[in-house]
Structure prediction request, 489 residues.
Amino acid sequence: MAFLSFLDRDRSIAPPGYSRWLVPPAALAIHLAIGQAYAFSVFVNPLLAYKAADGSTWSHKEVGYIFSFAIAILGISAAVFGKWLETAGPRKAMFVSATCFGLGFIIAAFGVFIHSLAIIYFGYGFIGGIGLGLGYISPVSTLIKWFPDRPGLSTGLAIMGFGGGAMIGAPLATNLMAFFKDSGHQPIACAFLCMGIIYFIFMMFGVFMVRVPAPDWKPAGWTAPAKTSALISSHNVTVNSAMATPQFWLLWVVLCLNVTAGIGILESAAPMLQNLFAGKVSALAAGGFVGVLSLFNMVGRFVWASLSDFIGRKMTYMVFFALGAVLYFVLPSISVLSLFVLVAGVLISMYGGGFATIPAYLKDLFGGINVSAIHGRLLTAWSFAGIVGPLVVNAYLDHYKATGQPLAGAYPHILHIMAALLVVGFIANLLVRPVDQRFWIRDSDAHA
Amino acid sequence: MSTTEAKPSSAVAIALAWLVVIIPAAWGVYNTALRAANLFK
Prediction:
């Protein structure tokens, strides 16, 4: 289709003089949109209450699978399509992402109209999940090429958008559902339909704005610094070779454990606060706690990733794991509410910071050429943690419920387990060494 | 011999591009901050 040729990598090479500061807004448009996934919970209660013509409803478990399925497909599609993205270029990948994400909503809207959970799974979960995965990794290597002097800051900016996307997605969905309910339409389906269209248009802004730098481009006045750390490679590694290195799997463990620990708090933030501060915190205030954590999550992505440009990626994760382990350990013993909230906020900032700093860590170790593809493969750690984290938390809570013990007693155990996981993460990060020369790329297999 | 002359991006275009993403993000942060305020009431 000739009219789609504007999506080709060759057609998106920036002309001389193109400002690199036009590229982060393109990346943010994608991440702010797909970050909606973390606000899917606002649809849960309306979906549970929605009755079919015969009066049947969906269970909590069935509705919960919509989000789980989307996140699982995110990880899989990022791993599968990352290699294609490196050759197709960011514009084409963003376009496919926008199409899938928007279409996923529209198919899901149809599924709601006819009360078919299978169609919602297929739409939001499968098609939308592909949009999530492709969208998540699509701007990463482009940003790193535009900002060789500040890779942490640039990728932190984009991935901060993913944290911020939930903040837009939740009130947008709530307001749309209220509007359509008042006007006598099916609120969930109409909200899905509108969001599919709105997000597609918003993401297309990113598609049109994104540019890749010319091959010989570098920031004005910038020269590659003399080697400052053995961990920063001046060579590239292919995605397949990267997966054969111990460094890839150590970082997989690092990301997985950092995410698992964060989910330990995020998964049950509101009930945890109400149980640990029984009688002192209302349900409304506990909802406010979730809001505070969202803000720390978003800001942490930018702050920690930017800081990593100065203190180094390995040191940044050392801080996450050392400070994190101590804070997780002491958190359940904090009896002052404001201090508890602050400590939990710092922990969640490091959870977000872990996501945002990992692309620059990969770039340091494996070079910038295939970083999106390698990042895509590494995101399977996120999918894995997304299953393991809630499993650990819910297994403990279920045990306490089944044995009739107060839930407040379960949280210290859960948080101490998270502290122990971070100690393991600390060791994994400590073991990261420069990539062996035998894995370095040859000219003939740059995109193998 | 033809050369491509460098045409710097305009500051207005850069500002507008950032506004497109900052406005919805700020709306989201504002809504979240309102919710977070409930914790301290």
In short: The interface with chain A takes residues 4-9, 13-14, 17-18, 20-21, 24-25, 27-29, 31-41 of chain B (CB under 8 Å). Residues 11-37 of chain B form the longest helix (27 residues). The CA atoms of residues 24 and 30 of chain B lie 10 Å apart.
